[in-house]
Amino acid sequence: LERELVSAAKRGDETAFARLIEAEAPRVYRAVLAVVRSPQDAQEVIQDASVRAWRQLHSLRDEGRFPAWYRQIAVRVAIDTAGRKKHRVREIELDPDAFDARDGVAKPDPSTGWDERLAVLEALSNLPADDRAILGLRYGADLEVPDVAATLGIPLGTAKSRLHRALSRLAAAMEVDDGDR
Amino acid sequence: MATDDPRLRPSEAKAATALRQAIQQLSTTRPVQLDVGTWVSTVPVAAPTWRRRTRLPVGLGVALAVVLAVGAVLVAQPGWIAAPWPASPRTHFDNGQFLFDYPSRWHDLSQGSGSIVLGDGTWCSGRPSSGCTSEEIDIANGRIVVRIWQQTGTAPAYCASPVPTGPTVQKYTEDSLHATQPTTRWEIRQPGYEFGMDGNVWIEAVTASESELAGAQSLVDSFRWDRDYCASPSDAPALPGRPGHYDDGSFSFDYPPEWSVISGPFYEGLASRTDAVIGTGVWHSGCRVVDNGGDCTGDTVDVSGGRVVVKILTMGGPAPDCAASEQPNATLGPNPVYQSTDGDAHTWEIAQPGGGLSWPNNVIVEAWTGDDAALSQAGALVASFRWAAGTQAWNACPSPTPLAHYDSDGISFDYPSTWDVISGYEHWGIHGPSILFAVGTGTVDSGCVVEPASGMFEGGVSCDSEATGRATGDQIVVYWYEGAHLFNPDPLPWTTPGPGMTTIDGHTAIEFGTPNSIRWRIGSVDYIEADWGPDAVDAEAQVRALVASLQSRYWPGSS
To answer: How far is B295 from B290, CA to CA, in rounded Å?
Structure first.
């Protein structure tokens, strides 16, 4: 079905393309969140990546690779976005009040791990964007490591070692040690 | 946790869990808003029908594609053009950038979308809470919907030289627009700009009514720009950093402060990003958005009279081919570079630290000049180039590791020279495993111990049935062992290729993988096994390279 949707989208079928994106975007959004650490920026990345994917869809020869191809575009856009915005003073929405009800979304309950969530986001800011990307793909998008490797276009062994290094850096940045359970 | 994750320390497992939960919470609290139909509704995809319908001169086709491409961007960027509608609709509009008049029977249809939409038909943006799931336009009974937007993000703007003359408006009709409703579009270029550039304004009228279309034409005729940007040098694009020193946080370089900033950042297709175009000459981008996304035909420059144009761009593209990377052929300042020259065009590629040439995120400096002094200035720019502290290449290929050669007891293979030979042939009889070789940085235990006589036990050798490799941290070990025959005489279906079947030195093997180990069963009790710790870098590739190079005069089952 996915191949049929890609074929239809290549012929200009916007509905087919929308179905492809709707199926993949929520997962990719979670990966992108780890990279850009801001829902607003992540939203823009998804939008930008989707428009790029639509424009470049003709270049996708293996129609079965759409998810990995789309993820790759989104991750690259995210890394680029993160690089361009890394000197922002306000990189992440550390203030819980920033998550207001503008979009009809309830403010998160601080009693449900809010501090820990902020700690994770703060720790992420100390990692290179590449680390955030591989962590986002693995633990945000919940991709298996082979899919992470395919998305990044790197060998499986390299993906594993890079994932491990990134996780080690995250743990160090969060200042948790092996006895801190 | 998936089984193919690296083995995690408690701290890493906790970090992974916290990260997963944080992202899950964040994405639940602020879910992605999908509005794909609106994003792509006017962006062309390379459909054959589109190409067949396009019978336009090249320039017109390009401009048409630009407007189509821009539509989605603008629709998706609320607030790009402020729409200062008065409480009571009037016939005059002025937002400080441009002004026009429109028939007073038209209404504001913009719904706070950020676009300028007016007419007597109905328009629904398709945005969340708009009441429709995709953009809808109703022009039944001779009504009209007019949308007005400003081009951005597709073709970089520059003040053309010489100043363009001739028409300032181009009109496109429904025959060329691939539209499902009767549509007419106009592009109105800014003073000093060419058609197709960012900053130009597009007006689209959707109507089947001749009289309403005449109203749209009157709007176009009344359109005026509030100011001439090209007449104001201060409106030149700004670069990050300060005059004479570029710094975007990723890299920096110095350039003669008297040089002009010709263009700021923009994308050239999916692959590359131009960060800056500076110099004293005239430059026109060779890239335009066309019906299949992007088309670059080579930039146009005028560097006559000793002038110079320097373009700095960041490469995109696929992951690098580690085996095919070229080497720098020059050093400018502290920077190893690959430099090449083609006539008056000079190019320097600067690789990211830890990366190779042709890798994504490398920086290319292109200079066009026929003047030696200007060329020296461009070279000085390259020499002053610095990556931001901590920059590392995106896809670091493993550094080639010097190899050592093992050749003993009829078995030979190559292995990293940093490894040790842990064991040669070690035989403990048929009650215990035999180790044919073991190399690496960890240890291998045959499981055999010499036990002294005790009580009724006469003493002797006590063995496990299999050898065991041990590798922690960044350690690795590769070994071939033969299990105790009496414990595991298990014939194998060697003649039946199937999942997990592979060959080593031309012989059939069955491969078993776990997160930090690979085991090949090569006979009823013979195994080649590799184990590595969670910190071992590129362990799997090193193991596979060793096994690929392995040759043996002995092979289980062979005579």
So the answer is: 6
| CA–CA distances in Å: residue A181 to residues A177, B9, B183, B198, B541 | 8, 11, 64, 54, 34
Partner B contacted by A143 (CB < 8 A): no
3-state helix, strand, coil in chain A (%, to 5): 70, 0, 30
Query: What crossing angle do the helices spanning A66-84 and A2-10 adopt, rounded to 10°?
Result: 70
To the nearest whole angstrom, how far is the Cα of A4 from the nearest Cα of chain B? 15
Q: Using omega within 30 degrees of 0 as the cis cutoff, is the peptide bond preceding B162 cis?
A: yes
Q: DSSP letters along B9-22, please?
A: -HHHHHHHHHHHHH
- Which residues have CB under 8 Å from B293's CB, separation 6+? A55, A56, A58, A59, B46, B269, B270
Q: Enumerate the residues of chain A whose CB falls inside 8 A of the CB of residue B518.
A: none
Which tokens hold the place of B92? 């005059």
Strand ranges across the sheet with B551-552: B403-408, B411-416, B551-552
From chain A, pick out residues whose CB is under 8 angstroms from the CB of B538.
Answer: 157-158, 161
Please, what is the Cα angle at B126 between B123 and B127, to 5 degrees? 120
Q: Which residues contact B548 (CB under 8 A, 6 or more apart)?
A: none
| Tally of CB atoms within 10 A around B199 | 18
Q: Please state, in angstroms and rounded to a whole number, the distance separating the CA atoms of residues A129 and A117.
A: 18
Amino acid in the structure at residue B473: G
The pTM for the full model equals 0.35
Q: Could you say which of A21, A54, A59 has the minimum Cβ distance to residue B43?
A: A54
Contacts of B72 in chain A (CB under 8 A): 51
ipTM of the complex: 0.83
Residues ≥6 apart with Cβ < 8 Å to B23? A30, A33, A34, A136, A139, A140
Q: Which residues of A touch B44 (CB under 8 A)?
A: 12, 55
Q: Which of B251, B242, B240, B276 is nearest to B361 (CA)?
A: B251
Angle at the Cα of B541 (from B544 to A149), degrees rounded to 5? 125
The rounded distance, in Å, linking the Cα atoms of A149 and A63 is: 18
Which residues partner with B421 through β-bridges?
B439
> What phi, psi does B421 have (nearest 5°)?
-85, 110
Per DSSP, what are the bridge partners of residue A77? none
Higher pLDDT, A151 or B486: A151
Q: CB atoms < 10 A from the CB of B217, how many? A: 15
**Number of inter-chain CB pairs under 8 A, A vs B:** 218
User: What does the CA dihedral B247, B248, B252, B253 come to, rounded to 10 degrees?
Assistant: -60
Q: Say if CB B529 and CB B521 are below 8 A apart.
A: no
Higher per-residue pLDDT: A118 or B59? A118
Local mean pLDDT, 10-residue blocks, chain B (559 residues):
56 85 80 66 36 25 32 31 33 76 83 75 75 79 87 62 80 68 89 78 90 90 79 61 87 93 66 79 66 52 91 69 71 90 88 80 90 95 92 64 88 93 77 84 82 62 74 93 58 49 81 82 83 86 92 71
Rounded distance between C-alpha atoms, residue B161 and residue A147, angstroms: 50
A contacts of B46 (beta carbons < 8 Å): 10, 57-58
Q: Are B520 and B547 in contact (CB under 8 A)?
A: yes
- Residue B62 touches chain A, beta carbons under 8 Å: no
B270 lies within 8 A of chain A by CB: yes
Rounded to a whole number of angstroms, the distance from the CA of A150 to the nearest CA of chain B is: 11
With beta carbons less than 8 A apart as the criterion, state whether B387 and B404 touch. Answer: no
User: Among residues B475, B479, B456, which one has the least CA distance to residue B529?
Assistant: B479
Determine which helix (DSSP H) or strand (DSSP E) holds A109, and give its type and residue range.
none
